[in-house]
Prior knowledge:
Layout: H1 6-25, E1 55-59, H2 60-65, H3 71-78, E2 82-85, E3 95-98, E4 101-104, E5 113-117, E6 120-121, E7 140-147, E8 160-166, E9 175-182, E10 187-196, E11 200-211, E12 220-232, E13 236-250, E14 255-256, H4 257-262, E15 272-290, E16 293-313, E17 317-318, E18 328-331, E19 347-348, E20 351-353, E21 368-391, E22 395-419, E23 439-458, E24 462-479, E25 489-507, E26 510-521, H5 525-528, E27 537-538, E28 552-565, E29 569-581, E30 584-590, E31 596-601, E32 605-618, E33 621-634, E34 638-641, E35 652-655, E36 667-676, E37 681-690, E38 709-719, E39 724-731, E40 739-744, E41 758-762, E42 767-775
Parallel strand pairs: 5-8
Antiparallel strand pairs: 1-7, 2-3, 3-4, 5-6, 7-8, 9-10, 9-42, 10-11, 11-12, 12-13, 13-15, 14-41, 15-16, 16-21, 17-18, 18-20, 19-20, 21-22, 22-23, 23-24, 24-25, 25-26, 26-28, 27-31, 28-29, 29-32, 30-31, 32-33, 33-36, 34-35, 36-37, 37-38, 38-39, 39-42, 40-41
Amino acid sequence: MVLFKMTEISKLQIVFFTVGIFSSLSLAKAGDxxxxxxxxxxxxxxxxxxNLLGSQFAASDDIERIQSSSLTDFLDQGFLGITVxxxxxxxxxxxxxxxxxxxxxxxxxxxxxxxxxxxxxINEPFGETVNWDLLAKNTIADLQLVSGGNPLFGLNSLGxxxxxxxxxxxxxxxxxxxxxxxxxxxxxxSLSFGGNNEKxxxxxxxxxxxxxxxxxxxxxxxxxxxxxxxxxxxxxxLNVFYNHADTDLKGNGAAPIELLELSxxxxxxxxxxxxxxxxxxxxxxxxxxxxxxxxxxxxxxxxNKTDGFNGDGSSYxxxxxxxxxxxxxxxxxxxDIESDALDDEEDFGDDQLIFDQHGNLVSAxxxxxxxxxxxxxxxxxxxxxxxxxxxTSDLKHNLIAGLxxxxxxxxxxxxxxxxxxxxxxxxxRSGLFDVSAGTDLLSQNETAGIYLSDTIxxxxxxxxxxxxxxxxxxxxxxxxxxxxxxxxxxxxxxxxNLGISPRLKINETMHAYLSxxxxxxxxxxxxxACSHPDAPCTLPNTFLADPPLxxxxxxxxxxGIRGMSFDxxxxxxxxxxxxxxxxxxxxxxxxxxxNVGFFDNVGDTRRLGIEASVKGIYQSxxxxxxxxxxxATFESSFMSSSPNHxxxxxxxxxxxxxxxxxxxxxxxxxxxMNMHLSKRIxxxxxxxxxxxxxxxxxEANLLAKLDAYSVVDLNVTYQHSNELSFSFEMExxxxxxxxxxxxxxxxxxxxxxFSNPVxxxxxxxxxxxxxxxxxx
Length: 776
């Protein structure tokens, strides 16, 4: 299916530019109407402006109005520039992409978004990942997506930063119970109650989610508990937040295209199970020192224990030496790094005999493996920020100065268990392990930052925002097993990042802005532990060597204009240019699903894009139209390791500067509407049109893109009374059969008759749910 032709896209871009120009010319007709007021304040993790130019904002009412099943679904539907793919085929484990940067739970992606919850950075310390299953949508009071590399948001904010504030007894002094059920045996229950007596406030919530999943062997469940206690004094406020989550998710990932042609619900190998257990405590304090002057501070502790069980095809082979034909061997070129753990292995030509933990040879009857992992990630730290409004005779200043410190500690254990495949391709348990493939790693990363910002108002029309942040990072890793001394290392990174953004108030209905900003991302501990091309690791399993990587430095230029026309139409138009220096990608060296490889600096990458949005109200109809064009390319030529590529030479393909980054669609068009059919009944409709993307592993763009696709979602709400409401939600209403993600793998390791290396993540079929909500 071809959804977009270039001529159609060109026409669409012209339409949006025409809308902007026409709206500008029509301002004279707008009368006294005014655009939403732009807050003349600075922006940081502890203080953000809800209408900051270039950012997107949503309150809890907006989240309630869009009947989405999760936070990432809401962002996908309601925010410009965001796409979501289901690489794991689990609704709570999506890959969220913004401007070509990811916030995902999957190790190996180019993580480039920072997520804050009540001022706490919740990117996990080991790999900068974001576990969306630990964020309950019903606890969110408001959120803001700040675009571009704003220096104040610290590490990893290459594409942008998401700042989330959760509910308190003062922001949400109501109680609510909600339940839903429907397709895939999905059932959800949410209970919350809050209130305050003007001095003390409380808010508590419990969310339970569970389903059998639409794919085979994909049952999942998640429990999120949340509490907030608040005290308000004459000139200060104290909030204590606590989060607990316990999730058990099955995400069986992409499957060979030949298998999906036989059954859309089939899985390749299983199980692929991730269990998260979270506890987070955050104390946040605000005090007004004087008129226009305040101090914000928080201190936090966060612990997340992640257990993983991944049944997979085996990387071992039957020994080629006929004397040992019934035993497992490892080819020498699969393990080039010397290790004391290999002393018990014997060489036989090109093979190495494998021994289990008891010193016994391993039977060739084991045709699969279980990757068992345990990550215990603890982070704690503090932020303190001073802000002041200074009004001189000619200028107004909004000053922000802050200090932050975060320490993250990760204990990573892994083991490879010999297994056999059952008839349904589930792996068995044997209790026998390859001691040479296990990992016992301890890592610690410390990040200290100091930042400054001055937003200067010149008269009635101009603002200039000047920002600077200095980051200092230390990462230490230590092998605890005694088998992998190459993992013992210490790395240090530091950099001063700057930003400047002039903003112009053209008139009461139009504002324009221009910004330039820098950000950086230091290599994460998992990248440093898996960065040797001669010692590829299995994600997220075995680490062998720890050579240095360079930090990624990002520079963003952004320009935009927003306005109001015809009394009720808000529009915005913008363009951005982001260039990453020394970008890091995961280079695969093999594996059944291309999960064996190493991280590498591959030179520069670029993201160039246009974003346009129009929304309005006409009588009983609310509507919006969002469009994003993204061209993400490699700007340096390099040899990409891709042994599963059908056109590879010596296991690699040549990437030329200008080739597109895989996994990122060029075009994203979303149309949404909500019509009030009566005082009690409303109808909502969302249409998404997404262009094709290259497969991961095809960085050289030698194969065809995935087909473009469209998907339609529907919801109907019946407001029985002020307290009681019912809704009906339908996703993928026309049951479109599309693929939002693809990679190259080795299907013949499991299916000898399969030859096509393309693995795809199928779309979820049509699903429908009924929801009831009672609020008092």
